[in-house]
Amino acid sequence: KLFFTDYGNAAKVERCDMDGMNRTWIVDSKIEQPTALALDLINKYVYWLDIYLESVEVVDYQGRRRQTITKGRQMRHLCGLAVFENYLYTVNSDNLSILRIHRYNGTDVQALARLDDAKEIRVFQKRTQAAVRSHACEVDPSGMPGGCSHICLLSSSHKARTCRCRTGFILGSDGRSCK
Fold first, then answer.
1. 16: left (phi over 0), alpha (psi -120 to 50) or beta
2. What are phi and psi of 92, to 5 degrees?
3. β pairing state of 2-6 and 12-16
4. pLDDT digits (tens, 9 = 90+) for 89-128
5. Which of 106, 112, 114, 31 is nearest to 72 (CA)?
6. What is the 3-state secondary structure (H, E, C) of the chain?
7. In angstroms, how far is CA 150 from the centroid of its own chain?
8. Residue 154's CB: how many other CB atoms inside 10 A?
9. pTM for this structure?
10. What's the distance, Cα to Cα, between the start and end of the chain in Å?
11. Which residues does residue 81 pair with via DSSP β-bridges, in sequence order?
12. Fewer Cβ within 10 Å of end Cβ, the chain: N or C?
């Protein structure tokens, strides 16, 4: 799945398959300007930062069990969001500090360090990296990913795929080659 935020005409948090199909709104009310998003892959939670409402909130992958983690003026200048173990990490663009927010007790907010200029934050940890398994976009014997001549996108599962073409090309009737 691909998770993303939008705050155009109607602010929302959405998800879709990697090929763009099955687009679903998971949050579309009481949301104004969601600017950062982080996933808890193990527990299947979506966290987002809303700088207009000055809040950090969470829902499960289906948009249920919504909770506010923390709220207040200090959220106004935050950008980027990452989750690791019991904490959310974000960057305060006003004073250029990294903040750590306890995700079960949002009143526990600590500044960890100062940076010169950061707009995003990521946490990489071996346990959270998905195990590589066989999937529909693996390179075939002729060197084409998933048998697609240009681009292979996973679809509704790791066993399904959709072929797409680079700009200026159209997909052939075989659903794999680009012309």
1. beta
2. -90, 110
3. antiparallel
4. 998 877 778 889 999 987 888 878 877 777 788 888 776 6
5. 106
6. CEEEEECCCCCEEEEECCCCCCCEEEECCCCCCEEEEEEECCCCEEEEEECCCCEEEEEECCCCCCEEEEECHHHCCEEEEEEECCEEEEEECCCCEEEEEECCCCCCEEEEEECCCCCCCCCCCHHHCCCCCCCCCCECCCCCECCCCCEEEECCCCCCEEEECCCCCCECCCCCCEC
7. 25
8. 19
9. 0.82
10. 28
11. 90
12. C
Side chain identity, residue 98: I
Count the residues in the chain.
Answer: 179
Query: What are the pLDDT digits (tens) for 143-176?
Result: 899 999 999 999 988 889 999 999 999 999 999 9
107 Cβ neighbours under 8 A, 6+ residues apart: 70
Q: All domains of the chain, ordered by start, with CATH?
A: 2-125 (2.120.10.30), 132-178 (2.10.25.10)
